Amino acid sequence: MMRLKGVADIRQFPLLALALLLALSSCAHVRSEPAEVMSAGERLSLAAIYESQGKTELALREYGKAARQGNSARAWFAIGNIHLRADRFEEAEASYRSAVRINPTNGSYHNNLGWAYMQQGKLDRAEKSVREALRLDPDRGFAYLDTLGAIQIRQGELDKAEATLTEAVRLAPAAEREGRVEIYSRLAGLYRLKGDIDRAVRMEERARALGPGVR
Fold this sequence. Notes:
By secondary structure, this protein is mostly helical.
């Protein structure tokens, strides 16, 4: 799955508020503040700071507070991403479903919900979610086609997956180097499944040609 940008942009808050959040995040023992002290948006930023520092439990706590306090789809999406990276697929599904319920027009939410479904073997639901992402957000179609290709591989539809991933490569902007690496790598795995080692090697070479440190 392609990495998505963080849900909170800390630049949107005044520098003084950001300094306070950083100070809070660096303290080992901070007394819990009353719920009304911080807005849901500020909690999103604090959670993003915790997450960037590897403090996952603290990040989940603040994302959870933001989700409940502000009925925040972005917070539920961030919670889902943490669960997905930790292979907690049922929890990821529940979080993404909450994000979709609050904001049903965001393609990324549907895409990641589809990924959580796929990891649980719910392939029909996964495909439906990703196709909804494609309908809602065609500008990010290359990323969603990559997910759809992964689902089709799981379904055993290798020819369809090849066509889908080839289209994903065609649509991926040159600036999306990491995304292109993921698509080429998935195509390489697909060709190995099909026994086409020459093509698999070519896809691997294209992925490596994008440069070290991309993934």
